[in-house]
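Researcher: Hi, I'm a grad student and pretty new to this. My advisor asked me to get structures for two proteins we've been looking at. I'm not sure of the right format, so I'll just paste the first sequence and hope you can take it from there.
Model: That works fine. Here's the first sequence with its structure tokens right after it:
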Amino acid sequence: MIKVENLHKHFGGFHAVDGASIEIETGSITGLIGPNGAGKSTLFNVIAGVLPPTSGRVLMDGEDITGLKPHELFHKGLLRTFQIAHEFSSMTVRENLMMVPAGQSGEGLWSAWFRRGRIAEEERALARKADEVLEFLTISHVADEKAGNLSGGQKKLLELGRTMMVDAKIVFLDEVGAGVNRTLLNTIGEAIVRLNKERGYTFCVIEHDMDFIGRLCDPVIVMAEGKVLAQGKADEIMQNEAVIEAYLGTGLKNKMTAGANA
């Protein structure tokens, strides 16, 4: 579905992404891991149109989408969530979801004056869909809660719910486990797997929790210093010498070696 070809993103003399090439297959849950500063989030931002590339190409289903803006990619079914959740804190959880679909009749002044019946009908349909999404994510009990009062994990579920309001094709999830307790992280993981299997969503996931990555993701791509270091199944990646040194650190590498020789 997504093919990234020799992508570069430079900030002055700093090469945040330095010739990265990856492929994300349709129907996969692909993991993207690497140490802090490896270029993972920058790569996400370039793919999702938040940042323009310095050079290189991004293809989606064979179409060159390099440099398209986030709202243009949104209409193509490509969505990106952020490490820090973005919500309308003073609106309810249900209202946050109802805001997502574009092209609503109530957005136009003329319709607001002369098509109130149509607007009311649309809002009822959106509310029903929002409630279905909340039930799917097992957070129906917070539907009428102000979104700003949610826990970190609930906000991550709300972000995932936004993607369900527009039937996304591919979703880029940036550190879904950041600030999330283990119970809610398991709930998020289960929702991702269900969306993948039941609704055909494709995911690419940045996450530092290797247990989470190992349970969900195949394949796993490793980045270091802006480059792709390795790709494979999670258990293969964990045995890769270069990955152990770059991602896990030489201290752990020596400890693992010592343990194996004991």
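Researcher: Oh nice, that was easy. Here's the second one.
Model: And its structure:
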Amino acid sequence: MQYWLFKSEPDTWSWDQQVAKGEEGEEWHGVRNYQARNNMRAMKIGDRGFFYHSNIGKAVVGVVEVCALSHPDSTTDDPRWDCVDIKAVEPLKRPVTLDEIKADPRLAEMVLVKNSRLSVQPVTEAEWKLIRELGGL
């Protein structure tokens, strides 16, 4: 299993909206960055990810699961852009903020710290376990 982080501005697509999609999940569409797209192309069914609220809140707020492999993004006719579908698994008991992540030396190499603009990014197993722990899971 691989681990990921999906960033969304909560006023555009929030954790509550993701949860409301239920087991069917939702397309993670609209990504127009090649590195983020390639990350989605590498995902497998059952991979887990953090749902991160960017801009407002700046915190990991929940856990999602990839429920559909990379496929054409329905929001464009441009064949270069793909997306996956994700479904909500569980909320963190408490959000883990970007400030907390940056302050923890064990997370200094995390992509979120080094390249905070990348909207879909890999997370190592050690980072995954630590952020879950910080979030009360």
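Researcher: Is there anything I should tell my advisor about the second?
Model: You could mention this: The first strand starts at residue 3 and ends at 8.
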